[in-house]
């Protein structure tokens, strides 16, 4: 694994005109009203413009897309070349459809005064339109890994002439769910390329994997992985799991809740929260991987236009939500990975605004809360009562897997000591019913009052397991049949016929 070097200190660059970008790009930036680069842009653009690989880490909302798009467009403009049919020069990989669409829209904006063309492909939509788009001249392709590999297999696109490889949200792209697809894509593109990795969070383990794709990279970290935006007011409410729905409805009903994102841990949980909010009279919509692309676009569009106040999302689907004016972020479920919390609350307090992040914490999630506070070095402000915590996370209560019967005994209860479903006790061997419902022998209970059923039943089992001999015309045959288990074939036949083993011979008794 190649070592990662750090970029040298550069003078403060206060305007885009100081970054040495091509004139058409500066014209596009001026048309959009962009004059001053963000810190990540000021540090990353010169290194990428000079052809260096780069690993960039910055908080969400700090302009990572422009940080890699602008210098990449600059190099493509300065090095024109003729491409083979269905080939592209730059490949940008994204973990989600929304983020991919957002990146491609930004690239079209920056390249509006150039001849460079871009397109985006992702799953969840018909593939025919994407194949036709790739048949035309395309310089920059933004894609999700799954749909890209599908189109490569169909020979709709070739990656043999790639000059730039960009992985946005690298912590998610190189996580276990995407690593196999990325390894396959890496075998399809030239080794001589410029590789850029950008992410809002960059855990150490993921950074080690990412370094395998880079050659002598420059690392730019504007804000540490554990840093949260200073203008985010972070609070925590301690509650029980069953009280979360009512607490969420009460939290979202305040007038200050202008536009909020509610994060859940699972797709099923997101849909369940939407149903619970609907019962409380609060309109909301969910976006996650099981939603169709049309459903996700309609929900995100209504949220962006202000028609919908509440959006419920999972972590992966939330990547790429670039909506201004999000006043609140609610962690309905605390994430298992502390860095994910940093990315979640980064949806608010964007572009210098302030925001409020609220976390619901159950006793089972106290360990996750402690990990978040340790990473961010910030103690979340509690709202309401704070229950005592001894530092141990309580285990979840055991679930009753019962089908028919009472299951395993608990709390020292002897097997069988339970009422039947009809409320009646079981009948004992002496013809009387006992209150506990177990089969009892008074004589045995006097001598062994506390032995389990297995030991109490041993004499009865031994009696049935003894080979029975035929004593009369038919009474012994039933006993002999019950003792056939464990007997060899010859011994069993001799038992059934009443013959004795006498050196291989014998006759039926009279």
From TrEMBL:
Coiled coil region boundaries: none
Database matches in InterPro entries: DEAD/DEAH_box_helicase_dom (IPR011545), DEAD/DEAH_RhlB (IPR044742), DEAD_box_RNA_helicase (IPR050079), Helicase_ATP-bd (IPR014001), Helicase_C-like (IPR001650), P-loop_NTPase (IPR027417), RNA_helicase_DEAD_Q_motif (IPR014014)
GO biological process assignments: response to temperature stimulus; ribosome assembly
Gene3D superfamilies in alphabetical order: P-loop containing nucleotide triphosphate hydrolases
Region entry Disordered, spans: 383-510
Domain Helicase ATP-binding: 45-220
Record CDD domains: DEADc, SF2_C_DEAD
Gene Ontology, cellular component aspect: cytosol
Domain DEAD-box RNA helicase Q per the UniProt entry, residue ranges: 14-42
Keyword tags: ATP-binding, Cytoplasm, Helicase, Hydrolase, Nucleotide-binding
PANTHER family (alphabetical): ATP-DEPENDENT RNA HELICASE RHLE, ATP-DEPENDENT RNA HELICASE RHLE-RELATED
Protein name (record): DEAD-box ATP-dependent RNA helicase RhpA
């Amino acid at each position: 694994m190649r070592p990662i070097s750090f970029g040298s200190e550069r003078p403060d660059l206060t305007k885009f005109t100081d970054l040495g970008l091509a004139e058409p790009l500066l014209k596009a930036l001026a048309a959009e009203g962009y004059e001053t680069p963000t810190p990540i842009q000021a540090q990353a653009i010169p290194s990428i413009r000079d052809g260096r690989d780069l690993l960039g880490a910055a908080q969400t909302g700090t302009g990572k897309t422009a940080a890699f798009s602008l210098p990449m467009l600059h190099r493509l403009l300065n090095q024109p070349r003729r491409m083979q049919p269905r080939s592209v020069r730059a490949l940008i990989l994204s973990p989600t459809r929304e983020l991919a669409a957002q990146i491609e829209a930004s690239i079209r904006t920056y390249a509006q005064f150039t001849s460079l063309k871009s397109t985006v492909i992702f799953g969840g939509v018909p593939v025919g339109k994407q194949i036709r788009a790739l048949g035309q001249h395309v310089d920059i392709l933004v894609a999700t890994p799954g749909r890209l590999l599908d189109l490569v297999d169909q020979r709709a696109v070739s990656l043999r002439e790639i000059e730039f490889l960009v992985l946005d949200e690298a912590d998610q792209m190189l996580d276990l769910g995407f690593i196999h697809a990325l390894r396959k894509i890496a075998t399809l593109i030239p080794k001589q390329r410029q590789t850029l990795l950008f992410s809002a969070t960059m855990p150490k383990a993921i950074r080690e994997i990412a370094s395998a794709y880079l050659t002598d990279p420059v690392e730019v970290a504007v804000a540490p992985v554990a840093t949260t935006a200073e203008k985010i007011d972070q609070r925590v409410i301690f509650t029980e799991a069953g009280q979360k729905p009512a607490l969420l409805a009460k939290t979202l009903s305040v007038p200050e809740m202008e536009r909020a994102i509610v994060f859940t841990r699972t797709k099923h949980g997101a849909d369940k929260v939407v149903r619970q909010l609907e019962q409380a009279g609060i309109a909301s919509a969910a976006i996650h991987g099981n939603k169709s692309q049309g459903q996700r676009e309609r929900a995100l569009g209504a949220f962006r236009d202000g028609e919908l106040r509440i959006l419920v999302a999972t972590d992966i689907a939330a990547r790429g939500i670039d909506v201004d004016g999000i006043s609140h972020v609610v962690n309905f479920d605390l994430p298992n990975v502390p860095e994910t919390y940093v990315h979640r609350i980064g949806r608010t307090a964007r572009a210098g605004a302030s925001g409020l992040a609220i976390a619901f914490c159950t006793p089972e999630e106290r360990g996750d809360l402690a990990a978040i506070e340790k990473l961010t070095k910030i103690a979340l402000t509690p709202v309401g009562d704070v229950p005592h915590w001894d530092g141990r996370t309580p285990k979840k209560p055991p679930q009753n897997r019962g089908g028919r019967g009472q299951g395993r005994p608990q709390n020292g209860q002897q097997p069988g000591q339970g009422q039947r479903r009809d409320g009646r006790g079981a009948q004992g061997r002496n013809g009387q019913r006992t209150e506990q419902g177990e089969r009892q022998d008074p004589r045995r209970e006097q001598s062994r009052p506390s032995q389990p059923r297995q030991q109490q039943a041993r004499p009865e089992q031994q009696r049935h397991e003894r080979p029975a001999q035929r004593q009369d015309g038919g009474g012994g045959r039933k006993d002999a049949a019950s003792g056939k288990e464990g007997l060899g074939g010859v011994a069993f036949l001799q038992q059934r016929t009443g013959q004795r083993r006498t050196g291989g011979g014998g006759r039926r008794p009279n």
